[in-house]
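Ticket #4471: structure output looks truncated?

Reporter: J.K.
Steps to reproduce: submitted the chain below (118 residues) through the standard prediction queue, then opened the result file.
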Amino acid sequence: MSAISALRKLEQQQQAPATGGLHAMMMQRMKQAGEWATWFKKQLIKLAHKGGRFTWIISTTMLFTVIPLGIEIMREADVKEMEALRVQSLKAQGFSAIQIANMGYQDPNAPSLSEALQ
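Returned output as attached by the reporter:
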């Protein structure tokens, strides 16, 4: 069948009057619903593939950036707590605040600039 005859046949099908009344209309709507369902299924599969890629990108980014950052923040809090205990221990031994500062420790009870501004 040539392209021209196929186009003529398609044109005749489109121009044909709807015979059969309600039954024919319902059958046509069911056919359209099937076509829409097929299209929707294809789009859903595409979205699932893209969503899988997006999930992979987010999860690997979290694995290599956010999780180490969280671990580092927890480690820093532990270090500050250890330094506070060390400063208290040095104060209990009789060292002055200046001597403790010269050792490289910062007194956790001393007011800081950020606390003074609040």
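Triage note (M.O.): checked the attachment and the full token line is present. The CA atoms of residues 2 and 70 lie 68 Å apart.
Status: closed, working as intended.
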